[in-house]
Amino acid sequence: MAYKKVHQFMGSKTQAIVLTIVATVTVLTTGFGVFRPMVAGAQPTPSSLSPAQDPLVEASRNPQLARALQDAYEAAHRGQPGYVQVPPVYLRPNPYPAASLQDYAAPRLAKREPDGYEPNVERLFVESPAMRRVVQVQVQYAKDRSKPAPMLYLLDGAASNDTSSWLTEGKVQQLHQDAQVTVVMPTEARSSNYANWQADDPMLGRMQWETFLTRELPTVLEKEADLKFNGARYLGGASMGAGAAVRLASLYPDRYRGTFGLSGCYSTTSNMGREFLNMIVAAGAGNPHNQWGAGTSAERLRNDVTAHPEGLKNMRVYVFTADGVITPRDRSITAKYGPVGNAAIPSSVVLEKMSNECAHELDDAMRARGMTHQKITYQQGGIHFWSYFAEQLPIAWRHMSQ
């Protein structure tokens, strides 16, 4: 759930159950006896303290934090197919309510127009039979449009709106410096996990992203959009998009040559992976049970990469995660967002602790099946922020495209 400025916070006491994106501060703080509320005017704010004095930094360094999260999620799931509720921090009105959905005979490029964000970025409007609406896709063209180029599908984080965070936060423009690649960035996928949902959600709407991304969109881009395509597709993402990219690449190995995931989760059934995906949905005010059902359904198992990593056997795989320990750089990054940035630090610590565990799960699963070709980067220091994803993008691309 990549860091974005919180659009709206709506919570209640009933939502603060066991552990939430915000309530995980309890695990970070009182759970380990590290943090004590400061009296206004009596002590400096945490951001002005040295690392040795900063209670959040000390909490993030606690080696037992990941284990405590595992135990908390296990307790939350014990004996019931529920999910940990979180405040809907990405709550926005659904721009595509059920009454507006339409039927389309086939995927079609309805129109295209300059994006206005970058001179070499265009916005494509694609009619989707699966989604029953027009899906907007931003395309950053290869630096030399006269020559064939591969396509890199870049998937966004949980807050996905009508402009991809890869453009606003992820510095996708840097790929033009040394890469001949067309970058495809789907938009308006908030809290979707880029999956085919079993039921339409009252708050989030219709979700059939797997079908759209793997079947409909490639047909439009490669046959109608007049792009010079060299036949090579790659799939990558950050946070929510990380798990989805690796999952879809594993499910459709004949369609992709490489995949990367930056700070995501790749299991749909482990305590950590299940809750990471559930949090993404609940943060958008959606019901995770509408995605793959309440229990361990066949569809949930189908989407578990750690249970079936064989699809990754013959493609390049790059995975990045930090360890969730707050660094001085993290403090400087969040400072520019003011109170919102400071409020995001505890949840960003927890999310990166979770993604670190998830990266180990994937690595272990692949190695158990004799795969050692994957490149896993375990960074010391760093939390769940777009600044790290932006740095990793060219590294991931170079690894995949070699």
Helix content: 25-40%
Tell me which CATH architecture applies here.
3-Layer(aba) Sandwich
User: Would you state the CATH class?
Assistant: Alpha Beta
Strand content: 15-25%
Biggest sheet, in brief?
A: 9 strands, mixed
Beginning-to-end CA distance, first to last residue? 29 Å
Number of helices: 12
What structural class results from the helix and strand content? alpha/beta
What's the rounded overall pLDDT mean?
Answer: 85
- Low-confidence parts lasting 5 or more residues at pLDDT below 50? 1-49
| Integer tally of domains | 1
Q: What is the CATH superfamily label?
A: Alpha/Beta hydrolase fold, catalytic domain
CATH-defined topology? Rossmann fold
What letter string, H or E per element, gives the SSE order?
A: HHHEEEEHEHEHEHHHEHHEH
Strand order of the largest sheet: 1-2-3-5-4-6-7-8-9
Radius of gyration, in Å, reads 21 Å
Strand tally is: 9
Envelope shape: globular
Overview of this protein structure:
By secondary structure, the chain is an alpha/beta fold. It is built from twelve helices and nine strands. A hairpin with a 4-residue loop joins strand 2 and strand 3. Helix 10 crosses helix 11. The protein starts with 24 loop residues before the first helix and ends with a helix. 49% of the residues are buried.
Please give a handful of descriptors for the protein shown.
402 residues, alpha/beta, Rossmann fold, 9-stranded mixed beta sheet, 12 helices, 9 strands, disordered N terminus
Question: What does this entry show, briefly?
Answer:
The chain is α/β, with parallel strands linked by helices and 402 residues long.
